[in-house]
Amino acid sequence: MVFESLHRLGSKASRVLVYPEEWDTKIENPTDRDSQLLVKARDWYNVKIIPAHIPVTHNRGRKDGDQTAPFVKLIAWSGESYDRVLYLDSDITIIKHVDEVFLLPNTPVAMMRDYGALPEKKVLGSNFILLQPSGEESDRLAAASRADVRQQEDTETDILNRFYGDSAMILPHQTYGLRSGEFRATEHRYFIGNTFEHWNPEKVLSEASLVHFVDEPFPKPWVMWPHALYAQEHPKCNGEDCSNKEIWTHLYDDFRKRRKFPNAFNRQRLQNKSYK
C-alpha cells in the first residue's frame, strides 16, 4: 500500500523492497499471497525487489512478546548503491509524497523525536528514517543487534537511539510523524510543541505528509477492533464539532478500503477532503 500511494502521488524516488530470501516471485496458486504481492509491487509500481537474509529474533521489547520480529530497519544501511535511503514503516497512510526530504543537507541520519514518549523520555522514533547508506555503519549496526551483544529487551529503536540519539538531524514530527491517536487525545502540547496554539484537526491533517497508526489501545488498522472497545474509546464530538471523530474514522476506513480493494477503490485525496 505504501508503494501504491507513492506511485499514485507521483513520487520520483526509486522504490526498493527487501524481502526474505525464502520467498520467490513464482505464483504457484491463487492463495500464494506473498508471491502475488511481490510481483505486483515490481510490475505495477516499479519497485526494485531484493531478496535478503532476514534473521528472526525473539523481541521481548514488544507487547506481543510471544511473536518474532526481525531487525529489518537496520538493513537499510546496506543499500550502498544509493546516496540516500528513506526507510518507511508500513503502518502508515501517505497523504503527500515525501521526495523533498532528499533535498535536505547531507547528514548521516535524520529522524524525528518520538513526541508520544514525552515528557518521560526524550528519544528518537524509527518509523521514518532518512539515512546515508554505509557498509561500515551497516556492519556496526549488525554487530550491535547480535543477541550476544545487545540487551535482551532491546528493539531496533533502542539501538538506533544509542547510535544517533545525540547526533541525528531532527525532522518535524508534525509533518512526518502525525499519529492517528492524536485525534483521540485531549492534550496536544507535545505534538504542537507549545501550550498556546489552538488544536485544529483539519489544519493539522492538511499540513501532514503522512499519518502513522499508533493508537493504543486500538490495534493496527488491518485488525478490526472489538465493538466494545470502539464504543468506549472512539473520539467524541465537542458539542457540534465532530472534526476529530470524522477525521479519525475516515483514516481507518480509508486504509481498510484501500487494503481490501486495491484495484477498484478510487479515493479522494485526504488533503482535499472536507469534513464539515
Summary, kept brief:
The protein is of the alpha/beta class. Helix content is 28%, strand content 14%.
Structure description:
The chain is built from nine helices and nine strands. By secondary structure, the chain is of the alpha/beta class. It has a four-stranded mixed β-sheet with strand order 3-6-5-7. The longest helix is centred in the last third of the chain and has 18 residues, at about 245-260.
Intertermini distance: 28 Å
Q: Quick one: overall form?
A: globular
**What series of H and E elements makes up the topology?**
HEHEEEEEHHEHEHHEHH
Briefly note the structural class of the backbone. Answer: alpha/beta
Percent range for helical residues? 25-40%
- Strand fraction band? 5-15%
Features of this protein?
276 residues; alpha/beta; four-stranded mixed β-sheet; three-stranded mixed β-sheet
Blueprint of the fold:
Layout: H1 2-8, E1 15-20, H2 33-44, E2 47-52, E3 85-88, E4 92-94, E5 109-113, E6 124-131, H3 135-144, H4 156-164, E7 169-171, H5 173-176, E8 178-179, H6 189-192, H7 201-207, E9 210-212, H8 227-233, H9 243-260
